[in-house]
Amino acid sequence: MTSKNILFIHTAIFTLFVLASLGSPIIATRYPEFFSPKNTLILAILAVLILTTWSIFGGCPFTVWENRFREKESAGSAYKDPCLKHYAKKWFDITLHGRLSDSIIIFLLLLPILSGLLL
Could you list the residue range(s) of the whole structural domain that residue 63 is in? Predict the structure, then answer.
């Protein structure tokens, strides 16, 4: 396994997460049964688990994993910022100031939960 493989996996999972989160209001209006109280509770538990893993691992587990492989491949190649901030700058030349990347992730975690609660 290489850091590039982990980056690919990380990017694929993150892309699916963003699409599902941003699509959740549409899904909620077309398929309200999907956002039953039970499923909404499951989404809330998953959000808490994701945020808990951040505090346990010191950031996104995929970012930590990628950086470990980066360091094995080339000392000093790990990045310090959150992955969203790092790759927004590297790939799109977009600078995310302060903790904006954390706010974006929290918004994406809350959007499906709010979609379910507002039904």
Answer: 3-117
